[in-house]
Design brief:
The complex is a heterodimer of chains A (603) and B (199). Chain A has a single domain, classed as Cytochrome c oxidase-like, subunit I domain (Cytochrome C Oxidase, Chain A), CATH 1.20.210.10. Chain A is 59% helix and 3% strand. Chain A has 16 helices and six strands. Chain A has a two-stranded antiparallel ribbon. Chain A has a two-stranded antiparallel sheet with strand order 3-6. Chain B is an all-alpha fold and 199 residues long. Chain B has a domain of 137 residues: Up-down Bundle (Four Helix Bundle (Hemerythrin (Met), subunit A)), CATH 1.20.120. The N and C termini of chain B lie far apart (62 Å). Chain B is elongated and about 65 Å long. Classes of the chains: A mainly alpha (603), B mainly alpha (199). At the A-B interface, α6, α7 and α8 of A face α1 and α5 of B.
Chain lengths: 603, 199
């Protein structure tokens, strides 16, 4: 059985042919592979920016009386002489959070890897709507440019946090430096970002549903594709709510409306000319997006880990259907828990309980997924590649971050811990670091496919070891700080308040700088491997999914003029096949003769 | 060996429109639920009477959906029994063209009617920032008009395809555009009910 020309539409006009010009090939490309790399490149620039901002904050927290080196020269307007004011600290914090959550944790694992890998894994030549796909990236790029532009306006970037709580974010420059044009740019940027992600989600869903190769049933979809598909559905709903929230906030700021500003609000000794709005409305709309956003960041990581683990363990993934079911359950439950971010907003204990219970329930599918990973690893012949190490690291940091979530999900405990460093430690582990480990695992795993060269494993293992030590040294002590009552968002802790925490803050700062330095190994490895790495074979990891059945890197149409035909699921490891202990998805069925059943060229 | 990328199947366009409809539905659900919640929690919520032209506009928009379907009936499916493409048949008969023209005319009439409704309200001193109810009114109607303009662009694009392209593509494009257009009418009826009840 094979695909043939007769199964194609009678007249199949071409979407696009290989581009000739530099602009079409590398800049305004319609090719999903180029767009995926563009997203990853944007994520890399964003993560370096966000990390640099965190170093300034950490240095100031460790040495509140000292000027931060170089900052007086880089930002003479906001930090004259390197002195970090409380306002500038909040501006740094806002931009760090916004850049990391939106432009790193959302773009890289979902839009970056998803764009490059998903169409190949389903056996398609491209995304369903390549023009929308190109627009999606460039809209996201414009959103990033608009956000970064806030650094260059007179008052600087906003200081209302990545959550932009109203009315602070809604009343304009009266509420502080950066709350003028800087905050307006923030709102516009995030609104534009939503449009980009909606276009991306639309493409992912249509491609997964309609462009699958012959034989690629839903049950045979690779786990990473399932994860990106589920993430698209989460994102479609989440960004559809954040976009209206941004529109309403923008109108409050520029058109005099009062969606989020109550009557009689006095800011900086002036009564604000608004009436009838509700700051809580912003919180509801924001967190209805904000909590699912956590899963937009982490579910692609689930998929990446679940794709890599069987390949490095050389055995099938435990409970594949349960794995998918749990991710779907997480996606559904993610819309019922937004109120746990608002326990301190004055909600009644009954409402708090209503949000607390599903928050505790959502840990069940998350715990099952973790147990499936551990079960897959247990008793396996683990090939300890760098990608494998980052998978193990992912499981570790996800469990660590998840455990502290148990405490925070209960309103009575959260009341004490919510405003402290405990929460900072929690979300950096479960969302930030876990997602980053997913990104690193995906990079080491798919780099050979993306660039046709292998990454250096020795440098990779050093990168992993130092990063693993660095993240625990940086974020674990934050839990202790939180339990001591060390409040977050403060720029420094003067002698009469939390002075005893200063040594621990200094330790965290040194750890954060150490962690950042460890990333230089990764950057060097990326650059060196891209230019001088050994040439990659088509399937260096002996993996089963479709991307490994084509060349490294894949040709423009992904499969060199053939339509792949799928005969197996992605989980055929630890079996006796013609290639060894695995069967690729395109390998012919055992009963058929090998030659006749290979994919057929389409003229 | 072909290295050009093939066209996505027509089902992808349909899926794309349905996914878009899902996103827009969610978006307007957010706006309208915000309005209903605000209405319930502000004692001094200021009601105002909707301009009557909005009800006539609703009829115009529904009528445009009907005329679009009449035009599509005259175009038919992608191929007839002999395998001739619909665009070729359509080019010959042109019986669909008047209905298509009426559809476009009605859509412009709807937008003009919405503009008249805004003019009337602003003439009465009800502006965007006058009260929470007026803010929601202007935001909802303006955003619906913006989405409708997208549908109008899709109809014009489909018309261009019908007149120039061969094969099944024009009919598939038109089917996707029509699905979106009908959704615009349904969305407007929903918004009108919500506005009539709460504004």
């Amino acid at each position: 059985m094979s695909a043939s020309i007769t199964e194609l539409p009678p007249t199949a006009p071409h979407h696009h042919v290989p581009p000739e010009s530099f602009l079409r090939k590398y800049v305004f490309s319609l090719d999903h592979k180029v767009i995926g790399k563009q997203y990853l490149g944007l994520g890399l620039i964003a993560v370096c920016t966000g990390m640099f901002l965190s170093w300034i904050m950490r240095y100031h927290l460790a040495f509140p009386d000292k000027a931060v080196p170089l900052i007086g020269w880089i930002a003479p307007t906001f930090a004259a002489g390197g002195v970090i004011t409380p306002e500038f600290y909040l501006q740094l914090m806002t931009m760090h959070g916004t850049i990391m959550v939106f432009f790193v944790l959302t773009t890289a694992p979902f839009a970056g890897f998803g764009n490059f890998v998903l169409p190949i894994q389903v056996g398609a030549e491209d995304m369903a709507f390549p023009r929308f796909n190109m627009m999606s990236f460039w809209v996201t790029f414009v959103a990033f440019a608009v956000l970064v532009a806030a650094f260059f306006v007179p008052d600087g970037p906003p200081l209302s946090g990545w959550t932009a709580y109203a009315p602070l974010s809604a009343v304009g420059k009266a509420s502080g430096p950066g709350e003028g044009l800087g905050q307006t740019l923030w709102v516009i940027s995030i609104g534009i970002f939503c449009i980009g992600q909606l276009l991306g989600s639309l493409n992912f869903i249509a491609t997964t549903l309609d462009l699958r190769a012959k034989g690629m049933t839903l049950a045979r979809l690779p786990y990473s594709t399932w994860a990106w598909f589920i993430t698209s559905m989460i994102g479609l709903i989440a960004f559809s709510v954040l976009l209206p929230a941004c529109v309403l906030l923008l109108l409050d700021r520029v058109a005099g409306t009062s969606f989020f500003i109550p009557a009689g609000l006095v800011v900086s000794d002036a009564v604000q000319p608004h009436s009838g709005g509700s700051p809580l409305l912003w919180q509801h709309l924001f967190w209805f997006f904000g909590h699912p956003e956590v899963y937009i960041a982490i579910v692609p990581g689930f998929g990446i880990i679940s794709t890599i683990l069987p390949a490095v363990c050389r055995k099938p993934h435990l409970g594949p259907r349960v794995l998918i079911g749990c991710q779907l359950a997480i996606a559904g439950l993610s819309y019922m828990v937004w109120g746990h971010h608002m326990f301190l907003s004055g909600m009644s204990p009954a409402s708090a309980t209503l949000f607390s219970v599903p928050t505790l329930i959502i840990t069940i599918p998350a715990a099952i997924i973790t147990l499936l990973w551990l079960g897959t690893i247990y008793g396996s012949k683990l090939r300890l590649s760098t990608a494998a190490l980052f998978c193990l690291g992912f499981v570790s940091v996800f469990v660590t971050g998840g455990l502290s979530g148990f405490f925070l999900s209960q309103p009575s405990i959260d009341t004490y811990l919510h405003g402290t460093y405990f929460v900072v430690g929690h979300f950096h582990f479960v969302m930030g670091v876990a997602a980053m480990f997913g990104i690193f695992a995906g990079t080491y795993f798919w780099f050979p496919k993306m660039f046709g060269r292998m990454m250096n494993e020795t440098l990779g293992k050093w990168h992993f070891a130092l990063t693993f030590i660095g993240v625990y040294a940086t974020f674990m002590p934050m839990h202790w700080l939180g339990l001591e009552g060390n409040i977050r968002r403060y720029s420094s802790f003067p002698s009469d308040y939390m002075h005893g925490s200063l040594p621990l803050h200094r330790f965290i700062t040194f750890s954060a700088l150490f962690l950042g330095a460890a990333q230089l190994i990764f950057l060097v490895n990326l650059l060196w491997s891209r230019l001088r790495g050994p040439v990659a074979p088509d399937n260096p990891w002996e993996a089963t999914t479709l991307e490994w059945s084509t060349t490294s890197p894949p040709p423009f149409d992904n499969f060199g003029g053939v339509h792949p035909v799928v005969y197996h699921g992605p989980n055929e490891y630890g079996v006796s096949g013609p290639r060894g202990d695995y069967v690729m998805q395109t390998d012919p069925p055992m009963a058929a003769t090998p030659v006749a059943a290979t994919p057929v060229a389409v003229t | 060996m072909s290295i050009a990328k093939g066209m996505a199947p027509s089902s992808a366009a349909r899926t794309g429109v349905w996914v878009g409809i899902g996103a827009i539905t969610m978006s307007f659900a957010a706006y309208t639920s915000a309005m209903v919640v605000r209405h319930g929690s502000i004692p001094e919520w200021q009601h105002f009477t909707l301009p009557p032209i909005l009800y006539w506009n609703s009829l115009v928009l529904v009528a445009s959906s009907v005329t679009l379907e009449l035009a599509r009936q005259r175009i038919g499916g992608p191929f007839d029994r002999l395998g001739h493409s619909a665009s070729l048949l359509a080019a010959k008969s042109r019986a669909w063209l008047p209905w298509y023209g009426v559809t476009l005319a009605l859509s412009f009439a709807f937008l003009a009617g919405q503009y008249l409704a805004w003019k009337r309200l602003s003439g009465e001193g009800v502006y965007l920032a006058t009260s929470p109810s007026s803010s929601f009114f202007y935001v909802l109607t303006a955003l619906h008009a913006l989405h409708l303009l997208g549908g109008l662009a899709a109809l014009v694009y489909a018309l261009r395809c019908l007149r120039s392209d061969d094969g099944p593509r024009p009919v598939n494009v038109l089917a996707a555009a029509a699905l979106y257009w009908h959704f615009m009418a349904v969305l407007w009826i929903y918004l009108l009910v919500v506005l009539a009840l709460w504004v």
